[in-house]
């Protein structure tokens, strides 16, 4: 589908400008809710870099989460995306989003909570996922997007810089934890670039970062869904007691005999005296296999959040 040229006032540059957003606020048409930390991207250079990070868009379907006023929506539509599903939860923002994207035949505004919507069914095919993720729900939203089978090949998301550091953290660092592993078991995260707080209006109190996530064609270790569930259980147990030896943390977290766990860990070629936060993803996969016979059926509980309260970006 060839994008239809919008009215001059409905370009990404226009919607991304500080003057436009401030004008909406002055006119009473936009009231950023501080309780939710709503703030809007007003840096066109950042906008261009986000679109570039998505890769070729011609003919692709895109799911945009937290579309807000539509700056990124319009940029994606203009870049040739065949279909942009712009998801926005806030009714007032969705109204402005609809006005700003009027005339673009390849844009569909979806009013709803991304946590509740069946995004895979709405998008169909193999869509890209982009968006400024509302920070207060970053972890549960990411876990939903990463739930196997992952329906997208590539995602580009903006999150708080601190969260980006946790997702891309290396073993043994203080930032490394359950969130790092929850993402890396089914996708390969990379820090694309950082975004300063001056790129938003109103100006937030924290910096942001843009991450790219490339879906693993095969989940870590080739694990099936049941194996990934068990892997989650093992990871939760290992990180449940950071200062304990691996065997002790696993025994406590899994409700198993310490000596039995220690033998299983050693039999897998891992040191039972290590701490869980020093293990990389491949070692956790090895650990899951070593403990598989002891675990039984694992529940599908998401990995716990290590995030602190923050703000929303629409």
What features would you highlight for this structure?
314 residues; alpha/beta; Rossmann fold; Helicase, Ruva Protein, domain 3; seven-stranded mixed beta sheet; two-stranded antiparallel sheet; 16% strand
Could you describe the 3D structure shown?
- This protein is an alpha/beta fold and 314 residues long.
- The chain folds into two domains: 8-221, Rossmann fold; 224-295, rRNA adenine dimethylase, C-terminal domain (Helicase, Ruva Protein, domain 3, Orthogonal Bundle), CATH 1.10.8.100.
- Helices cover 38% and strands 16% of the residues.
- The protein contains 13 helices and nine strands.
- The strands form two sheets. The protein has a seven-stranded mixed beta sheet. A two-stranded antiparallel sheet has the order 1-8.
- Helix 7 links the parallel strand 5 and strand 6 (154-160).
- Helix 10 (225-239) crosses helix 13.
- The model is unreliable at 297-314 (pLDDT under 50).
Spatial shape: elongated
Order of secondary-structure elements = HHEHEHEHEHEHEHHEEEHHHH
Distance between the termini: 27 Å
The value of Rg in angstroms is 21 Å
Largest sheet: 7 strands, mixed
Pick out the low-confidence regions: 297-314
CATH class term of the largest domain: Alpha Beta
CATH superfamily of the largest domain: Vaccinia Virus protein VP39
CATH-assigned fold name of the largest domain: Rossmann fold
The count of β-strands is 9
Helical residue percent band = 25-40%
* Strand order in the sheet with the most strands: 4-3-2-5-6-9-7
CATH architecture assignment name of the largest domain:
3-Layer(aba) Sandwich
| pLDDT averaged residue by residue | 89
Query: What portion of residues belong to β-strands?
Result: 15-25%
Tally of separate domains: 2
The structure class reads: alpha/beta
Number of helices: 13
